[in-house]
């Protein structure tokens, strides 16, 4: 249900509602379509650590002094925050998934950086979390229908800056050709990062915007995790894996590659 009341926020929520999986397909799903695979996001974190600094990393580092503290909302494997230490000396990860938090904790431990994990849904758990110099939130926004309170809580926790990264288009856009071919269902193409910017500006935030191409895991190891992930999202069973793999190879994942860094400073 759409709770948002201002025009851009309502457009965002309505556009996300259109991504609801058709009832009869969802009813026949052998597994939940909504879980994120931990291994895939642990590798995203390792890739972020090994890659040259992205615009999101540069914008975050600009607002961090040596020994600073970072809050990472929807931390996954830690791709947004692990590359910020140093200069950051302490990372706090929030995620609704215990498996993701455990993976993040292991990676932070291996990197020798002080860390804390908070399990739960943002912004529900926000009152349990202290402020940080920089708040980062990568690849979570398209999961959030009610974007205004989510962003307001990010902003309220940042002493200096919020950096929000998202793909230019909804990340599941790359599976649209698979939905058409395997279910005969045309999926939406909005909202986009521009629609997110409209919501933030409607909130009165002055937002910096920088688009870039990010490295996306497309090796055989990633494909091995991606096939079951996409199969679950498509509400299909194991017997369709070969078909899904060949469609993934044919259509690629361009929608995941085009990313946008949004940032704003707090008073
Ligand atoms: C696509 S992953 C991105 C992970 C990581 N930030 C990255 O860029 O690789 C999204 C993560 O956000 C978490 N998540 C989604 N919505 C959330 C919410 N409202 N509160 C807390 N965690 C959330 C998921 O469990 C998942 O770990």
Write a brief caption for the model.
By secondary structure, the chain is an alpha/beta fold.
Task: Give an overview of the whole structure.
The chain contains 11 helices and 7 strands. The chain is α/β, with parallel strands linked by helices. It has one domain: Rossmann fold (3-Layer(aba) Sandwich). Strands 3-2-1-4-5-7-6 form a 7-stranded mixed beta sheet. β2, α5 and β3 form a beta-alpha-beta unit. α1 runs antiparallel to α8 and α9 packs across α10. The protein is globular and about 50 Å long. The model has no long low-confidence stretch (mean pLDDT 94). The site of S-adenosylmethionine has 21 residues, from α3 and β2.
CATH-defined architecture? 3-Layer(aba) Sandwich
Order of helices and strands: HHHHEEHEEHEHHEHHHE
Query: Considering the protein shown, what is the CATH homologous superfamily?
Result: Vaccinia Virus protein VP39
For the largest beta-sheet, the strand count, sense and barrel status come to: 7 strands, mixed
Number of helices: 11
Q: Which residues form runs of ≥5 with pLDDT under 50?
A: none
The top level CATH class name: Alpha Beta
- What small molecules does this complex bind? S-adenosylmethionine
Give the CA-CA distance, first to last residue. Answer: 33 Å
**Strand proportion:** 15-25%
CATH topology name: Rossmann fold
Strand order of the largest sheet: 3-2-1-4-5-7-6
Mean pLDDT: 94
Number of strands: 7
Structural class: alpha/beta
Q: Shape, please?
A: globular
Gyration radius, in Å: 18 Å
User: Can you give the helix content as a percent range?
Assistant: 40-55%
Number of domains: 1
């Amino acid at each position: 249900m759409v709770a948002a009341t201002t025009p851009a926020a309502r457009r965002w929520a309505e556009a996300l509602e259109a991504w609801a999986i058709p009832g009869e397909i969802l009813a026949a799903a052998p597994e939940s379509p909504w879980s994120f695979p931990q291994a895939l996001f642990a590798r995203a974190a390792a890739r972020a650590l090994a890659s040259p600094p992205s615009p999101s990393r540069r914008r975050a580092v600009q607002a961090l002094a040596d020994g600073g503290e970072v809050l990472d909302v929807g931390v996954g494997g830690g791709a947004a925050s692990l590359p910020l230490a140093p200069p950051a000396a302490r990372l706090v990860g929030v995620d609704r998934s215990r498996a993701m938090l455990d993976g993040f904790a292991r990676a932070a431990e291996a990197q020798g950086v002080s860390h804390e994990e908070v399990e739960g849904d943002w912004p529900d758990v926000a009152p349990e979390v202290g402020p940080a110099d920089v708040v980062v939130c990568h690849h979570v926004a398209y999961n959030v229908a009610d974007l205004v309170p989510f962003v307001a809580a990010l902003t309220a926790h940042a002493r200096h800056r919020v950096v929000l990264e998202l793909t230019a288009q909804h990340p599941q856009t790359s599976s649209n050709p698979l939905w058409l071919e395997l279910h005969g269902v045309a999926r939406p193409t909005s909202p986009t990062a521009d629609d997110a910017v409209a919501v933030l500006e409607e909130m009165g935030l002055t937002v910096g915007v920088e688009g870039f191409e990010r490295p996306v895991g497309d090796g055989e190891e990633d494909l091995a995790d991606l096939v079951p992930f996409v199969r679950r999202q498509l509400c299909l069973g194991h017997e369709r894996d070969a078909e899904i793999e060949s469609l993934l190879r044919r259509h690629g994942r361009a929608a995941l590659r085009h990313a946008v860094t949004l940032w704003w400073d707090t008073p």
